[in-house]
């Protein structure tokens, strides 16, 4: 299936420099190209629509694409495990060039009279998906002993003793007994 993010650019390439504004909203993953990520990882919401809002400007031999891409994402708070839903908005500033060598990682290819904004969208969003998100900046997390959500309730559990300190304590008491 043709990418829903194709933009015709023949005219832009004939008139250098010239520019157009493009705003496209379509499924993020129209071809189901990407495996869903693990449940604990942040991911784009399944079957969500994404938006690419960019200015496409021609230069000799290529195009500059500048603007923002956005997509709904979901993740799990790293402290309290609650589900987080949000919209990721990422600035982009990339080049599309004619006859790009395949090993060129700095730019995207111009394919005939079109550019496909989908790879740019995918790259920008996957790069910015939060790796270890928080539901809120000061999330208090779960009690490691009883599992209570400390954002909503308190418990009487004593703080966990770090095993490294526990070992030091043991060493210290050996010293005490030798004196
Ligand atoms: Zn949280
Ligand atoms: Zn507790």
Largest sheet: 6 strands, mixed
- SSE order in H/E notation? EHEEEEEEEHH
**Mean pLDDT score:** 90
Name the quaternary structure: single chain
Radius of gyration: 25 Å
Strand content: 25-35%
Number of helices: 3
Helix fraction bin: 10-25%
Q: Could you tell me which ligands this complex binds, including any ions or cofactors?
A: zinc ion
User: What is the strand tally?
Assistant: 8
Number of domains: 2
The helix/strand class is alpha+beta
Shape: elongated
Low-confidence regions:
none
How many angstroms does the end-to-end distance come to?
Answer: 80 Å
Overview of this protein structure:
The chain is an alpha+beta fold and 179 residues long. It has helices spanning 10-14, 118-128, 163-178; strands at 6-8, 19-27, 43-44, 49-59, 62-76, 83-97, 107-109, 114-116. It has 2 domains: 6-128, no CATH class; 140-179, no CATH class. Helix content is 18%, strand content 34%. Strand 5 and strand 6 form a beta hairpin. It is elongated, with a radius of gyration of 25 Å. The chain starts with 5 loop residues before the first strand and ends with a helix. Bound molecules: zinc ion (2 copies). The site of one zinc ion has 7 residues, from loops.
């Amino acid at each position: 299936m043709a990418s829903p993010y194709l933009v015709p650019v023949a005219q832009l390439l004939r008139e250098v420099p010239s520019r157009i504004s493009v705003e496209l909203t379509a499924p993020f993953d129209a071809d189901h190209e990407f495996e869903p990520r693990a449940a604990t990882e942040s991911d784009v919401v399944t079957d969500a629509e994404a938006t690419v809002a960019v200015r496409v400007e021609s230069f000799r031999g290529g195009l500059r694409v500048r603007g923002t891409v956005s997509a709904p994402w979901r993740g799990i708070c790293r402290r309290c495990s609650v589900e987080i839903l949000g919209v990721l908005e990422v600035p982009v500033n990339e080049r599309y060039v004619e006859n790009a060598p395949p090993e060129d990682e700095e730019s995207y290819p111009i394919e005939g009279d079109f550019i496909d904004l989908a790879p740019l969208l995918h790259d920008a969003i996957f790069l910015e998906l939060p790796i270890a998100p928080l539901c809120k900046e000061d999330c208090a997390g779960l009690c490691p002993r009883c599992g209570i959500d400390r954002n909503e309730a308190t418990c009487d559990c004593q703080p966990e003793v770090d095993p490294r300190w526990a070992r030091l304590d043991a060493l210290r008491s050996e010293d005490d007994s030798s004196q």
